[in-house]
């Protein structure tokens, strides 16, 4: 693509425009560009979210397709909007198994729907802060019961509602069960009659379901029940609107498990992006730092890029995913500015591919690790093979995987279901790693077909003798694929070496590492609370940091043991922060955190004094960030003390409850290396 001819009609860029160009953060949670209204592209999904007339309330797409961006737009542009990121999708329900919830019109599942309906109404009442004295009769009585004030927490309130209806059902207490089942209708009738919100419409957004859930089938049942509750309330109460933002791989699991899925499917909005919409997104962001804005519609792109045709190559390479487009082009900008270019060349685009490809492969493994634990191992086994595969070669490769000891141990929960070429090809198609290509009668290959980003039918094209499989180009550099068609895989042909093997602590093998994580995961439940188990809990946290955060932290040690007896310890544990990228590198840059402090509290509730004492000790020793690990849940009532620590002492305290600690061990076991959960914790504190 060298020697590109440039049209004389292209508007020249102002001097230094490329150096000043910024595309913003790829993750919407941290993207300051979204504070500006002109940064948003009005896609059909955004239009559906902002329209009160549509009945569609489920926004489904792959990671990085704009779900959180829509929630931020609604928060910025509308009043009475509340965002909930639930942590309760790691359920335990004594007395009921998965089989009890397989039929949507039976009592167990209907009871779950009623519990979520009740919890959603309670969320509106508490998030809006309606005073019990300001309304009449029936609604006033309900408000007095439902208003929890500063102690309100969606997860805890939902668990109470679930047990309030499921326990009587399990015990055969018909009267109590019926009373609980009818409560949501009583509340909605009161809201309809008394209109406590006036002319306002209250919107509650549910996002990031997957961040804390355990990936179990029962967790999927919980999500299905919540979605059915949203549909019922949206249709019943005009003043309320509940929207759910769900990743497509999780939505597909709901499709499989929910016998009433047809009701949900009619309310779905896909997050597919066209090339024109992606171009508009890039052009809006490139214009942000320009005093004289360039026209949209292609003019801005042509001004910044030497090759006008490069847009198609960029968007196809990034699988038409907004987050990937921003990530890739940000790296391209860095390279172009490093070369002192005044416009982006095709060479800049090519140079950025290897770095982007490695990140994209890691993201893919993380995105699907809940569905397919340790799938990164399977993807890494493609290292050094070819970009294109025949049916027989892919079948031989799948058979070879089943003889790999690491694959059999770490992927046993799913790999044996994918043993044939067709099954294995469907899996790789579903996750976006491979596409299908066909040869015509002359033997020429047609362009490959890859999976779309939205909730469309995931059934791949049929497999025949003329089918070839093509690895998506965005992964070629990461696993050094050769430009050839693989027609056979010999049994004695070794797999290439790429992945996390060399990164594991203590030079453990993957099997040894998995054994250590399994042991750690089962340890927490057996530690007694309070002073009796405080030393065991501190040792547990120490081992968790060593096993789960080894890529960024090392030399984890007991801080109290290092200090003189007369000196008050600043915390229980200290670790050296040597991260080069990711969360730990971020806090080292923002908070000068070359050492990271962990305070271990073997108790369910934190006192204000616990937070303030630690912040004073940290500030006295010039530490600006610290972590408190404890046995309970992170409650909204802690926010006031956290804000005071941040404002008065300049210390950011990140609270890690028991559910957070279990998230870290579960992610380590499944091979997740991204740190989104930690970034969300930091973002919550910094927004206080």
Which features would summarize this protein structure in a list?
688 residues, five-stranded mixed β-sheet, five-stranded parallel β-sheet
In short:
Helix content is 46%, strand content 11%.
Mind sketching the topology for me?
Layout lengths: L16 H4 L23 H7 L7 E4 L5 H11 L3 E4 L22 H22 L8 H10 L7 H18 L2 H21 L7 E5 L10 H20 L3 E8 H10 L3 H5 L2 E3 L4 H12 L12 H6 L5 H8 L4 H17 L7 H6 L1 H15 L7 H6 L5 E5 H11 L3 H6 L10 H10 L3 E5 L28 E5 L10 E5 L23 H14 L10 H15 L4 E6 H4 L10 E5 L4 H10 L3 E7 L6 H13 L4 E6 L8 H11 L2 E5 L1 H13 L5 H11 L2
Parallel strand pairs: 1-4, 1-5, 2-3, 3-4, 6-9, 12-13, 13-14
Antiparallel strand pairs: 6-8, 7-8, 10-11, 11-12
Residue windows where pLDDT falls under 50 for at least 5 positions? 1-8
Residues in helices, as a percent range: 40-55%
Q: Give the strand order of the largest sheet, numbering strands 1, 2, ... along the chain.
A: 2-3-4-1-5
Could you describe the largest sheet, including whether it forms a barrel? 5 strands, parallel
Oligomer: single chain
Average pLDDT number: 84
The overall number of domains is 4
Morphology call: globular
Determine Rg (CA atoms, Å). 27 Å
Derived structural class: alpha/beta
For the record, give the distance between the C-alpha atoms at the N and C termini, rounded to a whole number. 49 Å
Percent of residues in beta strands: 5-15%
Number of strand segments: 14
Tally of helical runs: 28
